[in-house]
Design brief:
Shape of chain A: globular
Helix content of chain A: 10-25%
Largest interface: A-B, 34 and 34 residues
Number of helices of chain A: 3
Structural class of chain A: alpha+beta
Number of strands of chain A: 8
Largest sheet of chain A: 8 strands, antiparallel
Low-confidence stretches of chain A: 1-7
Order of helices and strands of chain A: EHEEEEHEEHE
Strand content of chain A: 35-45%
Oligomer: homodimer
Chain lengths: 152, 152
């Protein structure tokens, strides 16, 4: 839409995203912000992910977020896009989810999903890590997903 | 840096940001992700903010995040920039902080900071709200700030 195009109806008024719009945003983005909480502390980290339609899948190294998620698997996943149209429009999805560490035969399909996602992606924002001894492959199974947008 | 320029030293290896780099990122960005936690639930939301050198300042309407922050003022602020150079480099700052609701004479300087920030900003990503009866002006006073980057 050009800067001179008419404003959409409801311009500037927050609206709820429907399920298709939520899935589209989760498929389109590559960096989520993951919120976890343990021992009285809340921690938010960027998370390079792929979306399989019901979970956010990621591979990372052992560290603070993994130890927190093992302690408390209830997590929040937030994905957004700001100003992609140059008009200040934004979309945001927030989901409550549960951390599940992948083991055995679950690991290969998850890594395939990540490889496929980032092979399709333009640019080099994110490349899944090679699996090494300190790499953890996991998913956050999403529930209570909601999305909002402001169109300008 | 052009795509053909030599890679910087330490390319692809995470490094810690120093205090000046942390402040530069906090001043440059306009959208933080705020993590809060109450009643067993962690919640991450995008937050349009201005940085005053020690706190993230914002104005928002009453709602879920404000009620959670009033219940538990310990919060996490995450700010990042992905792929600004088209090479996949990223910077991220994560801070633990404390929610402080502004009242009385504290409100006007905070709104001035927000107006100044967004008057300087190119584009229309974010415009501070006008103050109305349901608007809450607050800061998250940052402590335990750390930053990481990967240069590619």
């Amino acid at each position: 839409m050009s800067a001179d195009a008419p404003a959409p109806a409801g311009r500037g008024v927050p609206r709820r995203l429907d399920r298709d719009e939520i899935d589209a945003l989760l498929h389109a983005q590559r960096v989520a912000r993951l919120g976890c909480h343990a021992d009285g502390e809340t921690y938010v980290v960027p998370l390079i992910y792929a979306y399989d339609g019901s979970s956010v899948v990621a591979a990372t190294t052992e560290g603070r977020k993994i130890s927190m998620l093992r302690s408390n698997p209830r997590a929040c996943v937030e994905v957004d896009e700001y100003d992609a149209d140059g008009r200040g429009s934004w979309w945001s999805v927030i989901a409550q989810g549960v951390y599940e560490e992948l083991t055995g035969a679950e690991i290969a399909p998850a890594l395939d999903l990540l490889r496929d996602r980032f092979a399709r992606a333009a640019g080099r924002t994110a490349e899944p890590r090679a699996v090494g001894p300190d790499v953890v492959v996991f998913r956050i199974r999403l529930a209570e997903v909601s999305g909002r947008a402001v169109d300008r």
